[in-house]
Structures are given as structure tokens and as C-alpha cells.
Amino acid sequence: MSETSPKLRAELEGIPTYKPGKPAAAGGPVAYKLSSNENPYPPLPGVMETVTAAASSFNRYPDMACTGLMNELAERFGVPVGHLATGTGSVGVAQQLIQATAGPGDEVIYAWRSFEAYPIITRISGATPVQVPLTDGEVHDLDAMAAAITDRTRLIFVCNPNNPTGTVVRREELERFLDRVPQDVLVVLDEAYREFIRDPEVPDGVEIYRNRPNVCVLRTFSKAYGLAGLRVGFAIAHEPVAAALRKTAVPFGVSQLAQEAAIASLRAEDALIGRVGSLVGERTRVVDALRAQGWTVPETQANFVWLRLGERTVDFAEACERAGVVVRPFAGEGVRVTVGEDEANDIFLKAAEAFRTQL
Ligand SMILES: Cc1ncc(COP(=O)(O)O)c(C=O)c1O
């Protein structure tokens, strides 16, 4: 056999493969997965029945235009259907946005640390990532991000709330930042955790996009809506951007099951509000307990908390796992822990307390 392998694009060298949150060990001690910011609840009422019915026709391709879902979303958000685009999760839509805007020689700006897919999808496209460190308070440094804009900048992500820190940018600072961004640079407000926000000063990206043609809002059904496994996310953006997203989409990327489940989930909003409310209550309990134990916890508006543990990150994650909860370590930096079932949160808090007493 020849030693020569097919030529691959040089950009792929050194790009890490996306690392998913570790699953809970099967068959081990009670183990809860708090590593992927998933919703711990079963599907919303009516969703299982809808998906089961839709399953009878998966020998057929899905509706490529996602007509039913688009109409539902257009009505829900008060936007034209032409301003909507769907994709295989919001990460899929984020990748389409980069494909539509940036290639070799172009720059994509985002805060760091932030969602770990940003550097991967930027580099796959051949564009250059420009990472702007978070402030000491673990918040987007919007002044530094504005200062990082060059004539090569094509896209800027603002992750609000930020994954993995849970921190937010508020209305006034965001508007001030957007006023500084040139009109021909796309700003993507990644609002994957929007439903968990309780701070009234955090703007709804959908309101911001209305008067700003260079702003695109990213949302997902994976988190609050509990459809992570079905892969459906969407963008709201003005015509040229939304149209570009429809061009860069993988044909038939959103399955009929996902489309039907998303529609049924949107229609089960009362139950959704109740569940999100419970998780937000648990978030307060977890943050308060951690602070009472002596931890520094940045204010989180998402369904997870962030502990900057530095060199002790991996030890802490291992201690949590031994106790029965899997968390998400970023070696040398910190640990992100999803707010999950009450029992899982209890186990995590106990493990955090035990670790703290050993410091
Ligand atoms: C900030 C942020 N954006 C986007 C996503 C992508 O989610 P999905 O592709 O499941 O919609 C995630 C998932 O973790 C996220 O944290």
C-alpha cells in the first residue's frame, strides 16, 4: 500500500476536534451528566407524541424549507419568514455564518474563553481567529473587542450569556459597542441560553437586530427547550444575511422529527416557563451555596456556573466524578458545571465543599 495520503487543506492542521461534554459512566455509581449544559427534563408535553408520529415517515426527506417551523418562528418573534434561517443546531448555523462571511485572510473576533466551537469553525473556513480575553470579572471586554476590529474583520461573536462563564453584557454597553462596529461587519449575538436570563438589563437580541442590518441573532432548541439530540437551531437576520444562510445550509440538514419537535415545543410554552423557572431557582441555590462555601462564582444568567480553578481544575473535575457528577473541565482554567436535577446539584455541592476543605 502506498504511504501517500490524500492531500488535505493545510488549515486543518492543528484544529482540535470538538470535544463534547463527557457522558455519565454507564453502570457506575449514580452518575449525573453536568458537562454539556443540557436540560435534565424529559421532552415537553406533546413532544414525544409528535415525534413518534413523525417517525413513521422518515423514509422521506424532510421539508427542506422548514416551512411549518419558519411560520411558527416568524409569528413568535414578529419577524418576516425571509429573516429566518434554520440549521443543524445553532452551531451549524454559526458555521454557515462564517462560511458566508469569512475565508482566508479574513478575521473573526470573539471573546476568550467563550464557546469552544468558535475557533474551530473559524479555522475550518480558513479565516483567522482573533481572541479577545475576558475582563478580570469574566465578562466580554467590548472596548477591547471594538479596538481589535480591522479592515479584515468580517464577523464578531458576542456570546450572551457567555459559555462557559455565564456572564452577560447589558443593553447600554452592547449598544455602545454596536455603534462602533462598521456597518459591513456582521455581529452575531449568540443567545443559546437566552431563556435563562433574569437580569432585565440584558437586551433581547431580537429587539436589537430590528434596527441594525449588521446584527444576527442565534437561538437554539437544544438548551431550555430540551431538544439537544434533535439538532435544530435558527438565526434571525436581515435579508442578505438570512439568504446567505439558506445558501450555506446543508440540504435537508434539519430532520422532520426535529422540525415537528421544535414546533410542538414552542406550543408547550407554559410548561417550558415552569421548567426554566425551576432551573433558575436551582441556579440561585447552587450559586449561593458555593459562595457560602467560600468560592468565587461570577454572576451567571445561564444554566451553568463557572469556577476558575486554574491548576486545580482537573483534580476538581475528578473529585466531582468520584462523587457521581460529571462536570466540564477546561484544563488550567476552570470548570463549568451545568445546573441539573436537584439530586445532581446536591452531589455537586457536597463534592465542592469537600474539595474546598482540602485546599
Ligand atoms: C454559546 C453556545 N452557542 C451555541 C451552542 C450550540 O448549541 P446547538 O448546536 O446544540 O444549538 C452552544 C452549545 O453548547 C453554546 O454554548
TrEMBL record:
Residues 1-12 have a biased composition (Basic and acidic residues). One of its GO terms (molecular function) is aromatic-amino-acid transaminase activity. Residues 33-350 form the Aminotransferase class I/classII large domain. Residues 1-20 are annotated as: Disordered. Its EC number is 2.6.1.57. Pfam families: Aminotran_1_2. Aminotransferase that catalyzes the conversion of aromatic amino acids and 2-oxoglutarate into corresponding aromatic oxo acids and L-glutamate. Belongs to the class-II pyridoxal-phosphate-dependent aminotransferase family. This is Aromatic amino acid aminotransferase. It comes from Streptomyces tagetis. The gene is hisC.
